[in-house]
Amino acid sequence: MKRLKISLVAIIVLLSTFLLSGITCAFHEGGEGYCEGCHTILGSPSNQDWSTDESSSAVPPTLILKGSDPSSTCLRCHAERSADHSVLSNDGSRFTPGGDFYWLQKTFSWSMEGLSYQSRADSHGHNIVALDYGLNPDGRLSQAPGGSYPSAALGCTSCHDPHAKTTGNGVDLGTTMAPSSYGEEPSTGTPPGTFRLLGGVGYAGGQLRSGVAFRSAAPIAKASSFGWAETDYNHTAYGSGMSEWCANCHGGFLNGSTGGVAGKHPAGKGAKIPAEISNNYNSYVGTGDVSGSQTSAYLALVPFEVDTASASLLDPSSSSGPGSGGDANVMCLTCHRAHASAFPSMGRWDFETSLMAESHPKAGDGGASGTDALHSYYGRNMIAEFGEKQRQLCNKCHLKD
After folding, report:
1. Is the peptide bond before 361 cis (omega within 30 degrees of 0)?
2. What are the CA-CA distances from residue 313 to residues 306, 320, 351 (Å)?
3. Strands (E), 73-131
4. Most distant CA pair in the chain, distance
5. Rounded to 10 degrees, what is the CA torsion of 146, 69, 86, 202?
6. How many angstroms separate the CA atoms of 194 and 171, rounded?
7. 289-321 pLDDT, tens per residue?
8. How far apart are CA 78 and CA 101, in angstroms?
9. What is the pTM of this model?
10. pLDDT digit string (tens) for 315-357?
């Protein structure tokens, strides 16, 4: 009976590890997964363990991806409809910090004052190629804006290193990095991995083997491992290097870059938030309401970087706005999602309307489903929360409304 009780406890613990909401780690554990999770291995002798025996002179097995392409292989797990780690839903309900690739399949249309308007699906995000899931190359752009990365080669592994061989400062093909997908600090003497397995210096961008090699290290950031749904109190905390990392492919948008794209908002380490802008951010609650305070000012729809190279100083549950010392800075993800959003230019909000209540998708739009309007703002009812007259969220910093 005692042995039976012990066995039952062990089973409960094991099931809890895999089933409790918010707990992920069974496959990646913040790093490289097991080979057979992504590959079908053909031609390997039954007595040959290729994961440990690298000295054998035998012909290695053929590794075949389980999906039609790298991104389809990733989405075999990351499109599980109800899983926290899903980044592709069937209704836009995956409120991850990066966004839901669902929006790449949604084109919205509407009429106003006799004119027709459209928000195209391929304007809503990074158009990863995942043929098994109906995701195709960008139909508008042949290469990355502000850069040269070809759209036809874009996939999950363009940004994320599936073999977790990338350190913060470069690529080490001989050592598996410490788990750090959530931004945790590695143990003393352990090679550090990167946040979300993002490629570091020298990373070749997945299936693209030449043409674009990363020059900037992966960013310093930290996220909670309990629940991926982004809120004002559970969000990615950004430390430094996010815009510089984006500039591996979008170099023309980086603040101070040579040949930069004219008219674009400054972003990067050089785009510091001065005291005046910090005060605006911290006092701004919404249009007509500037009664806020620094300790409760954080708005997940308008995040910022705090300018630190230490993940241990980052708090994903913090509700504080930027300090007034000029250390925080604007980054690409202050206004954009990394994966996709419901809005053009993968904006965190609709850049093309004056009032948030007039954002598209909205009820009655062509192509819009019943929950699209609510899910576009991560389940936030913008009218109920901010009012019918709430204007662009640029005003969180610039206070022009």
Report:
1. yes
2. 10, 13, 32
3. 108-112, 115-119
4. 78
5. -50
6. 11
7. 999 999 999 999 999 999 999 988 999 999 999
8. 11
9. 0.85
10. 999 999 999 888 899 999 999 999 999 999 999 999 999 999 9
